[in-house]
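To: structure subgroup
Subject: Chain for Friday's discussion

All,

I'm putting the inputs and outputs inline so they're searchable in the archive.
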Amino acid sequence: MEKVGAVRCQRIGCDAFFTEEDNADGSCRYHDSGPIFHDGMKEWSCCKQRSHDFSLFLAIPGCKTGKHTTEKPVLNRQSPSPPKPIAPVSLTKKNNDTCSRCRQGFFCSDHGSQTKPSKPLLLPNSKDDSEKDKPAPVKKKIDLNEIQTCRNKGCGKTFKEKDNHETACEYHPGPPVFHDRIRGWKCCDMHVKEFDEFMNIPPCTKGWHNADPS
């Protein structure tokens, strides 16, 4: 619940509500440099933390601490670094045996792309042995008084499950759109040029808080 007279912190990565009485040094965690978007990867230029998923990217905790502020920060914009040249597979075959990404069949910028092993063809009525032995998923036990953080896009507020209801959360149900230096949300057709303006686009939908990222 927001405190009476509280205002929202404008630092990137914080977005918490505060009052001058509880604004101690170190109470704010934030990013002091803007993000970099390159080839589907989102990265904070100040701490090099990155993620392909936009929700997980916004959930990366700030790398700096200080006091909350109502002044919008001036971001230090950096150009994305040029991609590393991909070495030919034939020249790096020796390293593929020790690289964890190569062994699992993922793309590796150091050793080139790997061919994923093909799965055996299953008949319509046959089941994979791994599926037969797979245990049933365990339902997560929820403490109604546990403080959780909502992972809905555009929300990020803390909540207790006992206070959650169908209009408690304000969020964006659609994916973010980044195209030709334009940033926005597909669900409400809002588009801006600056990242801090994008972060301040008001949510367009109400619903339940959700602590599990979608």
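Points worth raising on Friday:
The CA atoms of residues 122 and 129 lie 11 Å apart.
The chain has a mean pLDDT of 76.

D.
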